[in-house]
Design a protein that fits this description.
Elements lengths: L11 H5 L2 H7 L17 H13 L4 H10 L5 E2 L8 H6 L9 H23 L8 H26 L11 H4 L7 H18 L15 H16 L15 H13 L23 E5 L19 H6 L15 E2 L1 H5 L7 H5 E6 L5 E7 L19 E5 H15 L3 H15 L10 H11 L6 H8 L2 H12 L20 H4 L13
Antiparallel strand pairs: 1-3, 2-6, 4-5
Helix pairs in contact: 3-6, 3-7, 6-7, 7-9, 9-10, 10-11, 10-18, 11-15, 15-16, 15-17
Length: 504
């Protein structure tokens, strides 16, 4: 069973009381204010509002596929005719500020933060007298706010920080905070969540809610990102050397014995095996035309494939812009590896019976489990898996001079599940990152991994030289490309409030 429905059941007064007029006046700035005095009257109102904050996660799989997976050496999508936003992402175009994907990502994340801030500002003992419930609601909202800000800082670097609701006029005076200040709020929120959220939930109706271990996993990822070499002065990496802090969080998760690798890699993503013991935190989806299905699956397969396989309202990628799994990505899998066959569809027949030479991510697609349309896939999306915990620990040990024997054991544990019988010895940092690439293909981690490791520029230049058959990807890649452009409409809100990131 699913634990919570990530549907924002229009929050009555929260949405209508004063928001529409503010939106008309300042619809292009980070929104952190909603009229809500009439809404928060009892515990159920807060539970409904918290579901609304969770609902903001619906775009997470799409954002990280387009802005991390497509950006990386995993996907080759230069476009063949028309220009789609994700082609510009793939091609390292420097004119991204006017694209809808920049605007939608920025505004979407700030809308999510606004929801969390509004809930937190109204949370009190007068309305939620149950102290345990009140603390849990606060912990969940702060976990989600931290996740949203972590996305912002990884995508855009410096961003405005709102830790409370503000009016549109106040927002016009709040500029972009330095990256360390953004991290201060992220870390503070996650530390609160770790201290106040339960390690698990006994009721299946609560599956999918943030736990203390989910917060630990995210905090470990934050520390590791901060620890990466600072190649961009306003990027997400700070060369902070917090590998030990990350290890503390990772060891707590491992030592809990609450999580484990499943024997079969494919079972992690099975429609009838959701919320399994490998999931530390995932995003819940439901099918059946209830408005809470997952749209993200259609962002992977081609439209012609969807039509030939009778996916209702097929959707899929555009014919002029397939998202092809790159030759280099495919070549990285060894012969025993089961993850490529499970994760990648190689060639298909279209509706006219013609063989189409293409490779696309199929990890989340089960043709026996289709919803009512392309927006209605029910499979949950993993944000943090136990294999990620193991490989993050191997990476942190490698970066901090930890035990080589332990590094080897952690990596070989993941490789063994993938089908490799011959263990690696003296596993290098580069091998760890390649193992992550294979393990998490299609999960939106690759570009973030490359940025964190300091390998992004060299890796992408080598990949472009080898795989860019269409000769469309810029070879002028440098540190400016480690973060994205601030949306143009944000720069236009008030002259001088924000400055564009260098290179755009």
């Amino acid at each position: 069973m699913k634990r919570i429905k990530y549907i924002y059941i229009v929050l009555m007064g929260l949405v209508v009381a004063g928001f529409s007029s503010c939106e008309d006046k300042l619809d292009q700035s980070p929104i952190s204010s909603l009229g809500s005095n009439a809404f928060y009257q009892n515990e159920e109102d807060f539970i409904t509002a918290l579901s609304g904050v969770y609902n903001g996660l619906n775009a997470y799989p799409i954002n990280h596929f387009e802005l991390s997976e497509v950006r990386s050496d995993n996907i080759y999508s230069p476009g063949t005719a028309g220009v789609r936003d994700y082609n510009l992402i793939n091609n390292f175009n420097r004119n991204l500020e006017a694209t809808s994907i920049m605007n939608d990502t920025w505004n979407g994340l700030y809308n999510n933060i606004m929801r969390a801030n509004t809930l937190l500002a109204n949370l009190s003992a007068n309305v939620v007298p149950d102290g345990d419930l009140r603390t849990r609601i606060e912990g969940e909202a702060k976990f989600l706010r931290a996740l949203f800000y972590f996305d912002l800082v990884r995508f855009f670097g410096k961003v405005p920080v709102f830790d409370r609701p503000v009016t549109p006029l106040e927002a016009l005076e709040i500029g972009r905070s330095e990256v360390p200040a953004v991290y201060d709020l992220i870390i503070s929120d996650l530390e609160f969540s770790i201290s106040n959220l339960p390690p698990n939930y006994s009721s299946a109706t609560n599956f999918g809610r943030a736990t203390s271990y989910a917060a630990r996993g995210l905090l470990a990822r934050v520390y590791m990102t901060r620890s990466g070499p600072q190649l961009h002065p306003d990027g997400p990496t700070l060369n902070s050397n917090e590998w030990g802090e990350a290890l503390e969080q990772l060891n707590a998760i491992i030592d809990s014995n609450q999580f484990d690798l499943l024997d079969d890699y494919g079972d992690v993503f099975a429609y009838d095996n959701e919320n399994n013991e490998e999931i530390v935190f995932d995003i819940q989806f439901l099918s059946g035309g209830q408005g809470v299905g997952g749209e993200y699956v259609q962002y992977h397969y081609p439209e012609a494939f969807g039509r030939s396989n009778e996916i209702p309202f097929a959707g899929g990628t555009f014919p002029d812009a397939p998202k092809t799994v790159s030759p280099d990505m495919m070549a990285s899998f060894g012969d025993p590896d089961v993850r490529d066959d499970f994760s990648v569809w190689v060639n298909y027949f279209d509706a006219n019976g013609n063989l189409v030479q293409d490779r696309f991510i199929k990890k989340y697609l089960d043709l026996d489990n289709l919803g009512v349309d392309r927006f209605d896939f029910e499979l949950n999306f993993p944000v943090i898996r136990y294999s990620d915990i193991l490989l993050m620990k191997a990476e942190a040990l490698s970066q901090s001079g930890g035990s080589q024997l332990e590094i080897d054991a952690l990596v070989n544990q993941v490789r063994s599940r993938a089908g490799y019988t011959l263990p690696l010895v003296l596993v290098s940092y580069e091998q760890i990152m390649e193992e992550r690439r294979r393990e998490f293909i299609g999960e939106g981690l690759r570009w973030h991994d490359l940025v964190r490791s300091g390998m992004a520029i060299d890796t992408m230049l080598d990949w472009i030289a080898a795989d860019d058959a269409a000769n469309k990807i810029s070879t002028d890649i440098n540190s400016d490309d480690l973060i994205y452009a601030v949306p143009l409409n944000q720069l236009d809100v008030k002259e001088g409030l924000y400055q564009q990131n260098p290179g755009y």
